[in-house]
Amino acid sequence: MNILHKLAAGCLLGCLAFAAVSCTDDISIPGSEQNGGAAGEQGIEAYLQSESGKSETTVELRGQAVRSTVRLGLTHVAGRAVDATLRVAPELVEAYNEEHETSFELFPESQVLLEENGAVLIGPEDVFSDYMALNLMPGEGAVEGQTYLLPVTFDVKTTGIAPAADRKALYLLVKVSGARPDATKPSGFTMVSYFEVNDMNPLNAANYFLADSGKPFFDIVNIFAANINYDAASGRAYVHFNDNVAHLLANRDKYIAPLQALGIRVCLTILGNHDRIGVANLSAEGAREFARELRVVVDTYGLDGVDFDDEWSDYPSRADEAPGFLVPSSELYGRLLIETRRVMPDKLVTLYAYGHTSFYNPIDGKRIGEVVDYAWNSSYLYADYNSMKNFLGLMPGQWGPYSICLNPDSDQYTGDSLSDAEIQKLHEGGYGVMVWYDLRTDKRQSYVGRFSQVSSVVYGEQTVKRGYDYGKDW
Question: pTM to 2 decimals?
Answer without folding.
Answer: 0.72
